[in-house]
């Protein structure tokens, strides 16, 4: 896996959202997700629900309730209680990693059209989210980065995080 930057994506009332940007790409993982699905007629409702849920999380806090769709060490949006039964099979997912009640890292996502994410069209994004989460966890465990309130800083107290 190439190096990536952990960059601020969106600051809301109660939550600071981060995303990942590969050092060899011009666009972040979350922006890639938005670019691909914001005008998708097949996923309009699910995409809108995911974006509305991010706004809700930002206003209310990144509490466990919103992150109950667990995928290994990371999560997928929309949460199980938000996902509607009428999505019929194909479900759009945005992968993320909840670090605290005030910090969430948003990744990329895709359509879960199989029994599991690993067997679906979103398998690449699933495995990427897993790798990003592991690298972030290792950086925290090794003292390379840390949380200061709702801000991720590196050991030099810089907001420019490259992992």
Indicate the topology.
Layout: E1 4-11, E2 16-22, H1 29-37, H2 44-60, E3 70-71, E4 74-77, E5 91-100, E6 103-112, H3 123-141, E7 145-148, E8 151-154, E9 161-162
Parallel strand pairs: 2-6
Antiparallel strand pairs: 1-2, 1-9, 3-4, 4-5, 5-6, 7-8
Shape: globular
Q: Any idea what the radius of gyration is?
A: 15 Å
What can be said about the biggest beta sheet? 7 strands, mixed
Number of strands: 9
> Which parts are unreliable, with pLDDT below 50 for 5 consecutive residues or more?
none
- Structural class call reads alpha+beta
Q: How many domains, in number, for the residues?
A: 1
H and E string: EEHHEEEEHEEE
- The end-to-end distance, rounded to whole angstroms, is 10 Å
> How many individual helices?
3
């Amino acid at each position: 896996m190439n190096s990536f930057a952990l960059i601020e994506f969106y600051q809301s009332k109660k939550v600071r959202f981060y995303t990942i940007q590969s050092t060899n790409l011009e666009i972040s993982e979350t922006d890639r997700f938005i670019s691909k699905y914001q005008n998708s007629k097949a996923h309009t409702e699910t995409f809108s629900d995911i974006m509305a849920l991010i706004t809700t999380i930002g206003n209310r806090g990144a509490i466990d309730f919103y992150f109950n769709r667990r995928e290994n060490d990371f999560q997928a949006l929309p949460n199980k209680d938000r996902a509607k039964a009428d999505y019929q099979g194909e479900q759009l997912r945005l992968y993320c990693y909840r670090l605290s009640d005030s910090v969430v890292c948003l990744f990329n996502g895709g359509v879960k059209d199989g029994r599991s994410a690993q067997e679906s069209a979103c398998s690449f994004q699933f495995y990427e989210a897993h790798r990003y989460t592991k690298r972030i966890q290792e950086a925290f465990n090794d003292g390379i980065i840390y949380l200061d309130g709702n801000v991720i800083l590196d050991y030099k107290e810089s907001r420019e995080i490259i992992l």
